[in-house]
Amino acid sequence: MNVDELKKRIAASDRIVGFTGAGISTESGISDYRGSGGIWTKYRVVTLQEFLASEEGRIEYWQRKLEHWQTIRDAEPNEGHTFFVRLHEQGKLKGLITQNIDGLHQKAGLPADKVIELHGNTTLTSCLECGDTIATEEAMNRFKDSGPPVCGKCGGWMKPATVSFGQSMPVDEMEAAADVCSNADVFLAVGSSLAVQPASHFPVVAKENGALLAIINRNETALDQYADVLLHGETGAILPQLVRP
After folding, report:
1. Mean pLDDT throughout 121-150?
2. Element (H, E) at 136
3. What whole-number distance in Å separates Cα of residue 133 and Cα of residue 139?
């Protein structure tokens, strides 16, 4: 199946599910964590357990976040993000599952209730004790002024509202993702290596439930053999071709 045939399937569908990874946001200037120059090539992993147990671990964690915060804060959505907004506006998008933590889908105009953030959202910072939430910009300013921020309500440690190593995946989001996958007729996996479990299982779930699986990514993925449609290239160039004005 080629681009034109996929475009026809999208035009005929009102049960499309999107799935996005880091590759959709690299075109907005946000580096892939695993890629050259990414965070994981420059810093060791600070687990949740170390964050909770060690002041040094908390400082290292926040310093890592601070180094890349301005890039994420100032990033703007690109054509790939806009594509999913257009699907929503046309009544076609059932849900958007994302591995990304940058909030660019919402910034592009996709309603928050359409976005399932499997790994959380780094634009918000929450208390690990009581759950109180503040903007990460405020949390970063607190860190620069006085070290790792604590909750103003209960005194607990605060951390960006993302899933860290050693931290469980969010139950509600995982269930919501499984639900939309079970009812999709077109599943668009965009900008993801599809190598990270358990998130990478969702394209397989959708296909097993009868959805057409399209994988759109710059490089090969771990699930290419399952794809009904496989398109290699820049997501911001390919995706606008798939939706009618």
Report:
1. 97
2. helix 136-146
3. 10
Phi, psi of 97 (to 5 degrees): -95, 130
Model confidence at 41, pLDDT cuts 50, 70, 90, reads: low
Whether 152 shows a pLDDT value over 60: the answer reads yes
Quick one: tokens of 161?
Answer: 């509202």
Quote the pTM value: 0.93
Domain residue spans of the chain: 1-30+77-119+168-245, 31-74+122-162
SS3 153: coil
Q: What is the dotted CATH code of the domain comprising 1-30+77-119+168-245?
A: 3.40.50.1220
Torsion 194-37-141-107 (CA) sign: negative
* Residues labelled as active-site residues: 119
CA distance 86 to 83: 5
* pLDDT recorded at residue 1: 76
The values of phi and psi at residue 19, to 5°, are -140, 120
Sign of dihedral through CA atoms 102, 108, 109, 114? negative
State the greatest distance between any 2 C-alpha atoms of the chain, in Å, as a whole number: 57
Give the homologous superfamily in CATH for domain 31-74+122-162.
Answer: SIR2/SIRT2 'Small Domain' (3.30.1600.10)
Mean pLDDT of 109-120: 97
Tokens of 44: 């060791």
**Lookup: tokens for 28:** 């907005």
Cβ atoms < 10 Å from Cβ of 93:
25
HSE-CB of 56 using CA atoms within 13 angstroms: 1
